[in-house]
Design a protein that fits this description.
By secondary structure, the protein is of the alpha/beta class. It contains nine helices and eleven strands. It has a six-stranded mixed sheet with strand order 7-8-9-3-10-11, sandwiched between helices. The longest helix is centred in the C-terminal third of the chain and has 16 residues. It starts with a strand and ends in a 6-residue tail after the last helix. It is a peripheral membrane protein. Belongs to the ABC transporter superfamily. It is found in: Cell membrane.
Length: 254
């Protein structure tokens, strides 16, 4: 089943065209990695997929339902508010800088949206949150505040928060870029575990060996276009495009 389909996406900030005719499909249970140099449009593509940015042209469908489509003039037209609210329930997003509410406890950070948006009872939300915290190795941190946690612990809470509403697809935007190298491993381990459970994920990452080993499929972006895409192992270990080869030379992938 196709969970996400993005067709011919275009996005500009003023005169700066950051996405140029980008298309991507994500199937249920698939892990898609997006790699590329800084400024290539990777994070903007994720922000467009999750409604944090609007596209100028192109169409986006979740589970076959339109989020945005082109009109007869080739301009993007978004669905009505009730449809967009429904589509928002299909995905979760993990930010690179955690984005936890500093004045909420860990438990409340996870339960706030399920209670107020997802209409779960407080008992349901608490039970789900505690189960997720246990999975993340943080069951003893429910009543603490974000400032009392390490960066790796905060990111694990952020992942638990994204999972709390049982999304169909989970997006990660450079989930380890704000972490010290020694904390990176614990977050990558959590994502590996999710992949082993066939969680559908789209991961923007600069961890090349991780992308190769965890993703099923990789898109390499540069200057707003998809330069090369394909099977993760093949693309990282044996890139075909010269630009991809040049980019991957900087990493030890073997």
């Amino acid at each position: 089943m196709t969970l996400l389909e993005m067709k011919n996406i275009g996005k500009a900030f003023g005169d700066n065209e950051v996405l140029k005719d980008i298309s991507m499909t994500v199937s249920q249970g698939q892990v898609v990695g997006i790699i590329g140099p800084s400024g290539s449009g990777k994070s903007t593509l994720l922000r467009c997929a999750t409604m944090l940015e609007t596209v100028d042209t192109g169409s986006i469908y979740y589970k076959g339902e339109p989020m945005v489509v082109n009109d007869t003039n080739g301009k993007a037209v978004y669905a009505n508010s009730s449809q967009l609210k429904k589509i928002r329930s299909y995905f979760g997003l993990v930010f690179q800088n955690f984005n936890l509410f500093p004045h909420f406890t860990v438990l409340r950070n996870i339960t706030e949206a399920p209670i107020n948006v997802g209409k779960q009872t407080r008992e349901q939300a608490n039970e789900i949150a505690m189960h997720l915290l246990q999975q993340m190795g943080l069951a003893d941190k429910a009543d603490t505040y974000p400032y009392q946690l390490s960066g790796g612990q905060q990111q694990r809470v952020s992942i638990a928060r994204a999972l709390a509403q049982n999304p169909d697809i989970l997006f990660f935007d450079e989930p380890t870029s704000a972490l010290d190298p020694e904390l990176t491993g614990e977050i990558l381990a959590v994502i590996r575990e999710l992949a082993s459970k066939h969680m559908t994920m789209v991961i923007v990452t600069h961890e090349m060996s991780f992308a190769r080993d965890v993703a099923d499929y990789i898109l390499f972006m540069d200057k707003g276009v998809v330069v090369e895409q394909g099977n993760a192992v093949d693309l990282v270990n044996n890139p075909q495009h010269e630009r991809t080869k040049l980019f991957l030379k900087r990493f030890d992938n073997k």
